Amino acid sequence: MDFDVIVVGGGPAGSFTAKHIAAQGFKVLILEEHDLVGEPVNCAGLLSRRAIELSGVSARIIINKLTGARVYSPLGACLELAGNHTWAAVVERSMFDQELAEQAQTDGAFLFTGARVKGLEPAPGGYLVSCSCRNGKDISFSTSLVIGADGAKSRVARCLNLKPGPYKASICAAETELSRTSADLADIFLGSELSPGWFGWIIPLDHKRCRIGAGHAFVKEAYSPRYYLEQLINRFPDHFRGIKIVRYTSGVVPMGLMPKIYAQHAMLVGDAACQTKPISGGGIYPGLRGAQICAAVAVQALQEDDFSQEKLALYQELWDKEFGSEIYSGISHRINYLDLNDHDIDTILRFLNKPFWQKTILEQGDIDFPSCLSSCLSTARPWKMKILKGMLGALNWGSDLKNSLKLHSADLKEEV
Ligand SMILES: Cc1cc2nc3c(=O)[nH]c(=O)nc-3n(C[C@H](O)[C@H](O)[C@H](O)COP(=O)(O)OP(=O)(O)OC[C@H]3O[C@@H](n4cnc5c(N)ncnc54)[C@H](O)[C@@H]3O)c2cc1C
């Protein structure tokens, strides 16, 4: 074999997987279609501290730190969630990817850029991976194990006949020049017509530059994501006054649990394996964890020279165990969200915009594992709120909330 492992795609999931396998002494090649790792960028670059710590990248890639967010309804309500500690960091995504690729090379992986993988051909003991290079020439490498880290539209997954994820968010985003009075809060915009099934955002980089985006998800009929971004800008003129679009980006976030993320002599990781969070669309943290799990199973397979489906199935088992319920619940919250009209959204935000709920959300909210908080909040439907005000003690959902938030009912009663 030319290489023990070939990783297709030099994004965060690919480089992180390659790093962990190469660190164990195996010969790993990363094939990246672009000349420069990390370019072009299609990401808002919002990461939790957990994700940054896990990645091991340097602090120089952090452009801004956010302490909270304001959530807007299309009818005028605003839920203010301004904390006093860092809730998320905004990173320079291309540098983030480049640092991870450097880490992989430091640990012994080879990186071949400008090499687009075209196909996989079964070969004795593995695969022959063919790619076309920038100079127009085609080249093939043999390997015992192919790892598809080639993103949302994974060619590796298609070559292996692995079914894609069941859902996706289609997003239009942009880098902009946009003045802000506060650079430490993100703005989130909800609305059934503004971003059906999804949300719009402004993420400040500093007082003069922001990343913005909007899109749609889980809806059968929708306009293009760009339409929703333009709607957002028009519907909230105060937020977007004087905006100058520097660069549009767009992309798709695959979501849900894929039936199978491995095959004989092959595994998928990152977006290719649908390792994303359905509530926010963030894929970097789950992709990095997926990479660690994938690499651990790959190392075992290499040590035992066993690349059978039975052996590699362990990867899916471990992934589902760690993230399965989070993804499942995220998807069900997203589907429930489709039932809310603009009036419901407005009522919920007004209801939550009180010190008790603000404090709860800031304390309990975890951008990597949002399902606990979202299950609590999704029960706060307007009709339930009305009943709650009169009959809190008798309601089951009151105790559900209490249990899941680990609150004392006295606190809850006092607030309501
Ligand atoms: C608009 C937008 C905003 C987002 N914002 C956030 C955010 O704020 N926070 C967050 O956590 N997540 C965010 N995400 C999701 C996040 O960008 C992805 O989950 C993440 O990039 C997945 O990493 P990956 O390594 O799996 O795939 P990718 O980053 O897509 O990397 C795949 C790599 O494979 C290469 N490749 C593809 N095909 C081939 C081929 N045939 N041959 C060789 N190379 C190939 C590509 O060039 C690319 O470098 C956002 C997504 C979008 C679309």
Mean pLDDT rating: 89
Q: How is the biggest beta sheet arranged?
A: 8 strands, mixed
Q: CATH architecture of the largest domain, please?
A: 3-Layer(bba) Sandwich
Q: What overall geometry do the principal axes of the alpha carbons give?
A: globular
pLDDT < 50 stretches: 386-416
Number of helices: 14
Determine the CATH superfamily of the largest domain. Answer: FAD/NAD(P)-binding domain
Helix content: 25-40%
Would you give an account of this structure?
The chain is of the alpha/beta class. The chain folds into 3 domains: about 5-45 and about 95-165 and about 260-330, 3-Layer(bba) Sandwich (FAD/NAD(P)-binding domain), CATH 3.50.50; about 60-90 and about 165-255, 2-Layer Sandwich (D-Amino Acid Oxidase, Chain A, domain 2); about 340-415. The chain contains 14 helices and 18 strands. The protein has helices spanning about 10-20, 50-55, 95-105, 155-160, 225-235, 235-240, 285-305, 310-335, 340-350, 355-365, 370-380, 380-390, 395-405, 410-415, and strands spanning about 5-10, 30, 45, 60-65, 70, 80, 90, 110-115, 115-125, 125-135, 140-150, 165-175, 185-190, 200-205, 210-215, 245-255, 260-265, 265-270. Strands 1, 2, 8, 9, 10, 11, 17 and 18 form an 8-stranded mixed beta sheet that branches. A 7-stranded mixed beta sheet has the order 6-5-13-14-15-12-16, with helices on both faces. Strands 3-7-4 form a 3-stranded antiparallel beta sheet. Residues about 385-415 have low confidence and may be disordered. Flavin-adenine dinucleotide (FAD) binds near residues 13, 14, 34, 47 and 171.
